[in-house]
Amino acid sequence: MHPMLNIAVRAARSAGNVIARACGQLDMVQKVQKGTNDFVTNVDREAEQAIVQVLQKSFPTHGIVGEEHGDYGNNDSEFQWIIDPLDGTTNFIKGIPHFAVSIALKHQGKLDQAVIFDPLRGELFTASRGRGAQLNGTRIRVANLADMQGTILATGFPFKNKTHMPAHGAMLASLLTDAADIRRTGSAALDLAYVAAGRFDGFFEIGLKPWDIAAGELIVREAGGLVCDFVGGNNQLRSGNVVAASPKVLAAMLKGIRPHLTESLSR
Known about the structure:
Protein name: Inositol-1-monophosphatase
EC number: 3.1.3.25
CATH superfamily of the largest domain: Fructose-1,6-Bisphosphatase, subunit A, domain 1
Cofactor: Mg(2+)
CATH class of the largest domain: Alpha Beta
Helix content: 25-40%
InterPro entries: IMPase, Inositol_monoP_metal-BS, Inositol_monophosphatase-like, Inositol_monophosphatase_CS, Inositol_monophosphatase_SuhB
Strand order of the largest sheet: 4-3-5-6-7-8-9-10
Order of helices and strands: HEEHEEEHEEEEEEHEHEHEHEH
CATH architecture of the largest domain: 2-Layer Sandwich
Number of strands: 15
Number of domains: 2
Structural class: alpha+beta
Strand content: 25-35%
Oligomer: single chain
Shape: globular
CATH topology of the largest domain: Fructose-1,6-Bisphosphatase, Chain A, domain 1
Keywords: Hydrolase, Magnesium, Metal-binding, Transcription, Transcription antitermination, Transcription regulation
């Protein structure tokens, strides 16, 4: 395992311990609404601090961007960590056992290391650029399908900006013409990890943040998949609009998505 990935795994497991302990005391969790249909808890913040402590101890000169606190450390460093301490906070609050820790490292602007850790299932998805993707140390690959027939896709609703609901609904209807079914799990990081592992055949969502996408993007790519924005470009970390799948399924998904793009979703 790459030394930096090894530290990222240590950080993810440390955050996972914070989250797992809190699962048994959900009545003690403190939550605050930070935006429309968007919550943060004391557990998110404690898990983020656990990650930051591990990363800063090993890499004191690196930059870190966290979902809850924002920037830590050196923003000018060629090494930038992107962390989501608890992806799937609403699931966590409601006692739905589907959430994860997500940590990615960019080196000179390119995604280089990635970890997504499901602390309840003990599933550790990892990737290093050019070295493939693994689940608990075993190599994983995206599903090798020739087209959309029989596919199981995943998505997330644009609950933070419901003006996109008509476009999203039209995309769903179009994709369901050929797909077998569509899931909405509540954790984009795990949706991407599941695409990498061949559990889902494709994923798309509107309006995500870099910490939702970064680790999952590298893991999907290293598992043989493709990740892009809604027009087939590479603007997904900035636009937040992302599609991920094996090459042939991704092409079919884009064909179903593009006719329903508004001007804002085409950027």
